[in-house]
Structure formats: structure tokens, C-alpha cells
Amino acid sequence: MKLGLENFHFAGGFSVISKILLGGVFTLLLPQVLSAEQIRGPESIEFFDRAMRFFEMRDHSVRVVALGSVLIGISCGMMGSYVVTRKLSLFGDTLSHAVLPGIAIGFLWAESKDNLALLLGASFAGFLGVACISLLKKFTKISQDSALGIVLSGFYAVGICMLTRIQKMDFGNQSGLDTYLFGQVSALSTNDLIGVCASLVLITLFITLNYKELLISGFDPEYARSVRLPADILQYLLWALLAFCVITSLQVVGVILASALLIIPAASASLLAKRMSSYLCIAASLGAISGLVGAFLSFLGERLPTGPLIVLTASFLFLLILVFRPHHGILVCWVKSRLQSHRIAMENTLKAIYQVIERHNFSETSIRMEELMQRRNLGSGECMKEVNRLSRSGFATASLDPHSPSGLPPEKRVSLTPKGWEYACRIVRNHRLWELYLTNEARYAPDHVHEDAEKIEHVLGEETVRELERILSNPRRDPHGKLIPSLVDIERGWLG
Amino acid sequence: MNNPHKPLEIHDLTVSYQRKPVLYGIDLEIEEGSLVGVIGPNGAGKSTLVKTIMNMVKPNGGYVKIFGRAPKAGISRIGYVPQRETVDWDFPVTVMDVVLMGRYGHLGWLRKIGETDRRIACECLEQVHMLPYANRQIGNLSGGQQQRVFLARALAQESSLYLMDEPFAGVDAVTEKTIVSILKGMRDRGKTLVIVHHDLASAREYFDHLLLLNMRKVAYGKTGEVFKPDLLQKTYGGRLSILSDMASKSAGVRVIEKEAYFTEK
To answer: Pick from A216, A220, A270: which is nearest to B92 by CB?
Structure first.
């Protein structure tokens, strides 16, 4: 018995996931491969045919399915916004698992898949679960997350036991109760749709009527109580609506993944939204998109469970937002850090060229590539790359030395353009000013300042430089006795 | 004297957590227009006092009256500033949203925020020098800025009694000066302010009244009269051991009595 139960859940879960992955990848990305392999079958034609059928929405069943998934996506997105901002993510998960025994009881009571009986049973079990959590929290020292864990797994275990028994009963075979585990949108009936609509209307009504009360009790419950808002009643109403929302969405997403549809769109919205109103809108639209795309994918593939596909779509959207969102997105951050490290490398090369020219007492305008390599401590390939980057930006030019001894390959030389010279002077000035500031004002030892200045020189703004010059009264020499290029030098073009 | 009741009146207040007394026999009457600092060592019951006044903790004995009314009805006249750590600063609200929350007490259910509320919120933000940040998400503020937003919310509430729990915690020196000058300005306009404070050194110049608290009221009065070495020694220099022992025992007794009472019934 025990073994059977484990198989029931895990084997089911794995086979579903592998089915989705394989099926999804093959049907979506490689339709032509699929058709090549299955010439005998009519499925190649069916792919586009089915897609057309879905978007034309001629079939009644397709309309019900698409509408149901979208509406559930919207209501879960909105409820999820409150679940996530109030840090109740595990609560939604617990609730969805806790209703499972209720569904089984409802089925046993009505001896058929009667919607009303299932709904009543699920509501009863859901509220029992919430009551258990509240009691555990009130009368024991068990923390909220442990209480949620206990109720979640306990109720779920009871539900699985009962469902397994039902499957073995006479009337159980055609019950189709396993759709509640993984969700099957094709099992959605018009009656279910009414329930889904009702829950969406209730949720929208509740949120619009109590928008500011929910905002304040979510952000600062203590303060909400101090202005005599019924924060606890709001919380309980929110839980009740959450239960209703979860129960109506079970048909589509299933018990195991119901919380995902609550959490993922809302978590994606949290990456983008600055205010609660936009948070709600983004979460609801992401939920709707996930619902529609998930339903479409499940319609394309033969007997693919809808719930996992909707959740996969939502997760994919989450990933997209994580990578591509403005300001803090992974891509933007990566590009920014790449650009910054390029700029720093370029500035260091410019500085190295300046330093080599300085070593020759500014007698020559160009330097040998070899000297730059030594100064920058780079290989010839790396160094050439840097110089090329500089010349692309118009800061330097590379040329072959016409005076190099005959018989040997001509030597490469680098010279700075006026723009590059100005830039190099600025960096050297920043570096030396900062060194002087550290030794004179912050009382650093002269041999402690170089490393710090290596970093600061790249971030010192023009305003700070003016400030430093004022504090140090326009100095000419750095702590090591080297000349600090001044504005006049930069404009004149050459030091000397 | 158009208002015969004192803003805050506490009589023989005892509060205990799980049989351990935190406050014991507190008597206090605060006059209108005073700026009161509540000081005492860690665990002296400062925050518990605030929570009891705010009706979040039920007292075991004694009572609190706010303008002559029980806390349940009276707290609507209090502008409350909780400790900064009690809220989630990643919540999707802007600075303006938070300050507008100060107006919610004046609005009923289903009433929308109006032009007047917005104008008041802007004025309050201006007072704490935070108007340029009005559209920022609150998570992108420094600790001092967050505290100033809280203060602006309290200002927007237009209460007559204010209760603030450690408004100077984790705040830089400049912000602290700004907050103090705002608090003094509020007092000059006739508001009553009770402020929990942790720093003994600055208490003397910030407040005109001080409540020295260490489980019981050590002293309450004008800062000049109360800020005396012997009283401070009493507050900070260890508890009166016999009293605290007895209080622990009696707190236990009270609970036992209650249990006996319930079983009899």
C-alpha cells in the first residue's frame, strides 16, 4: 500500500514533468523533425490545424478552456500580489494542499463528480486547515512556517490516501479525480467557469472596495490598528478569498501547483512594480498570459496536463523579467559592469602611455609597443587589443616605425591623439591629486596611497576634482615628486 | 480649560509577559503640550508601555486613559510612530503613499483620498525635507530618510497626542537634529508628545519632561528636576532586587488566581 502511494505521486510527477519537457520541446521547437519522423501519422498537419482551431475559438470547449485559464490567471495574480507582499507564500501552498481531503470527502458524499459537493468539501477542508494553523500558532510555541508545514503535509497525506481508495472503488474509475492533482483544463465545464467568474468578481470587488485598507494593513499592521482599521478581519477575509480562489483554480492547475500560479506572477511583478496598483496590474496580466499560453500549449500536445504548462509559462516569464528588466536586470547589470571594466582598462592603458612618455621627459610623442606592454604588464595580443580599442574610440593611433633597423620586422609605435592626451592627463591628474589629498589631508603614509588612488582615479568626478584642487591650493607636484598635469597643461597640449 | 481631561493618564498599571512583570504599578499623568522622553535601560519596559497604551498588550492591572477614554476608543486620537524595523521596507509603496496613510484615520471606509489630503501630505513632506523623494519607492531610502517619512505620516495625521517608539534609532546626527526641531515645533503648537529614547546623554536637551522607567516609575517630572545623578543611578544602576522578586511572585499568583477562578466556574 505504502509503496503504491509513493509510486502514485512520484512516478506521476516525474512522468508528467518528463512528458512536458520532451513533448513541449519537440512539439514547439522542432515541429518539422516531428513530422519527418511521423510521416504515417496525421499529427504534422494537426499541429497547425490545432493552432488555428485554438485561435479561431470556434469550438465551445476551446472557448471555455481559454477563458477559464485566463480568468484563473487574473484572479490568482491579484490574490498572489497580496500573498507575496504579506509574506504568506507558504500559506497559499498549504491551503491548496489542505483542500485535497475535502475534495475526496465531497466526492464520497455525492458519489459522483458533483461540483457543488466538491466545492463544499474543499471549502470545509480549507477552513479546517486555516483553523489548525491559527490554533497551533495561538496555543503552542511552534512558529508559523512549521505550523504551515505540518498542516500542509498532514492534510495532503490524508487526501492522497482517500483518493487512492476512491480510485479502487466501483464508481472511482471514471471519477477523474486525479485531474485535481495535476489539473486538466479539458475537464473544465461551463459550471466550473461560473465558479471561476464568481471568484474573480468577488476578488476584484474586495480589492477595489478595500484598496487603501489592504495597503496600510499590509505595510504596517500595527499602525493600521492604531487608526482603528480592522486589520485582523481584513486578514481573515483575505484568507477566505484566497481559499475560494485556490479551490476554483484546482481544476486547471491542480493541487500541487496551485500555489505556483499565486506566487510566480506576483513575484515577477515585485521585480518591476513600485506601487501596489501597478503591482496588481502586472501580476494579473502575467497570470492571464500564462493561463492563455499554458492552455494553448496543452491544447497542442495530446493529453498534456495544463497546470504544469501554465506554471512553466509563468516561470519562463519570470526568468525573462529577471534577465531583461530595466535598472537591476541581470542583462543590464552585466552590460554595465562590462562597460565599466572596459572603461577602466582603457583608462589604465591611457595612463600607462602617459607614464611612458613622461619617462622620456615628454621628448617624443609616440612610444614603442614593447614599452607599453611592460608598463601594463600585458602580453602582446592583449596589449594590441587595448590599443585597437583606443584607436577605435579615437584616443590613440598605432603605426609602424619607419626608422626601425632594416632586416627586422618594423616596430609598432603608439601615439595619443589630442583627445586621448587630454583624457590621459585627466586620469593621471585624478590619481596624483588623490594621492596628495590622502597624504596631506588624511595623513596617510606616502607608500600607502598608490593602491587606493588606482581605484579612485576612475570614479573621481570633475566637481570633486575642483574641490580637491581648492583644498590643496592647485598643487603642481604629487607626494612622489611627479608633476600633476593641470587644466592649463591639458589645454596647451603638452607638458614641459 | 476647554478640555478637562489630560492627554494621557495611567493608573497603577501592571503588565507581565508569561508571569514575568515588565511594568509594575505605574502612575503617570501627562499635561497637554509637553514633550516627554521615556528613558530607561534595556528591558525596562519602555516599548511595553507604548504597546499597552496602544492597546496591543492587555494590562494585568490598572488602566490607561487617553483624553479620559479607554484605549480602545482613545487610540484614534494618538499619532503612533512604530519602530522602523516593524515594517517591511520592500513593500510596493512610494513615500507619498506612506504619508497619505496618515490621512486614512480621517477618511471612512470607501472614502477616497482627496485634494486636501494630498496637499497636507505634501506640506508634511516639505517639513521633514523629503518632498523631492515623494515618488521614490520606500525601499530606496536610507534609515534616516525612512524615519523622516514616518514622522511626516504622523504629522499628516494631525493628532493631539503622539507616541513614538525610538524615532532616533539608526538615524544620522543631522537627521536627529531635524527630527528634534520638528518635535519641538509640534510641542509649541500645543501637541503632546511621548517619545521612547535610548540615549541618556541627549535626553536632557531634547525633552522638557522625562519619565525614568525601570519596570516601575522611578521618577517623572520636568527635565531639570528629574535629571539628577541619584535618580539616574536608581534607573540604570540595577533593579531593586526585593521588589522585582516579589513582583515576579505576585505576577505568578495572579495567574494562578485566575486559573482557580475559571475552574470554580
So the answer is: A270
Q: What is the DSSP letter of B137?
A: B
Q: Using CA atoms, how far apart are residues B7 and B75, in angstroms rounded to an integer?
A: 11
515645533: which residue's cell?
Answer: B185
The cell for A60 is 465551445
Q: Which helix (H) or strand (E) holds B213?
A: strand B209-214
Chain A CB within 8 Å of residue B33 CB = no
Whether A229 and B104 lie within 8 Å, measured CB to CB: yes
Question: Is there a contact between B101 and A220 if contact means CB atoms under 8 Å apart?
Answer: yes
Interval A158-207: pLDDT, tens: 988 888 888 777 665 555 666 777 776 667 778 788 888 999 999 999 99
Judge: B82–A222 Cβ closer than 8 Å, yes or no.
yes
The phi, psi pair for A8, rounded to 5°, reads -55, -50
Q: Which residues contact B147 (CB under 8 A, 6 or more apart)?
A: B84, B167, B168, B170, B171, B175, B179
Q: Does B120 touch chain A (CB under 8 A)?
A: no
Task: Determine contact: B82 vs chain A, CB below 8 A.
Answer: yes
A63-73 pLDDT, tens digit each: 888 888 899 99
CB distance B92–A228 less than 8 Å? no
Instruction: Give the tens place of pLDDT for each residue, A135-161.
Output: 888 888 888 888 888 998 999 999 888
Whether B231 and B212 have beta carbons less than 8 Å apart is answered as: yes
Q: Which long-range contacts (CB under 8 A, 24 or more apart) does A34-40 make?
A: none
Distances (CA, A) of B68 to A37, A119, B28, B74: 86, 51, 13, 8
Chain A residues with CB under 8 Å of B97 CB are 215, 275-276
